[in-house]
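Notes taken during the Thursday session

The instructor put the following on the board and asked us to keep it in front of us for the whole hour. The protein is TetR family transcriptional regulator. We were told not to look anything up and to reason only from what is written here. First, the residues (198 in total):
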Amino acid sequence: MASKERIQRLKEETKTSILEAAYKIVKEEGWQALSMRKIADEIEYTAPIIYEYFSNKEAILAELNKKGYLYLAKEMEEARNQHEHPAQQLEAMWMAYWNFAFKKKELYQLMFGVSMNCCSVQKSPEAEAPAKLITDAIRKLMDGKVLSEDDVCRRYYTFWSVVHGLVSINLVNQGTSDEMNKQVLKDAIGGIIRAISG
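Then, after some discussion, the predicted structure tokens were revealed:
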């Protein structure tokens, strides 16, 4: 039994090493530089070993994409949990989203196809978790008002369009100062919150 557990642990460690190597290559050279051969060289394995864990580069991208959404949802949840009022929760979660976009820039690019061709990834619970956190807070903010799922969805996309747009502008072309960007972001979030709760 112990040897089965050890083998499983080694497999998980190898899989983690492959993903870490892929992310390291991307951080240093960009998404266009990622290849199975480079990953194999980075972890000092042969390419066929990599294919035992991932059928192709797209499978690695899909796994990194999933990990990115899990990390983003965790950051947003932690930000939400620091506040009681839905308006404050919404602002905190969107600020966590903003911070994630620049702290984990390469993952954000992969997740949302900014400055790169996005891999075709199926909708997954991981990919939908950040949106669920936001829509839950929108429902709380609008508590007592009659609203349809379309209303909630429209408000979510209003938020996301503004925040993602500002993030994308800055990732692609480094917009104005960080202080100015954060103020624009807070102004936009505050305006949308007032429109929702007004």
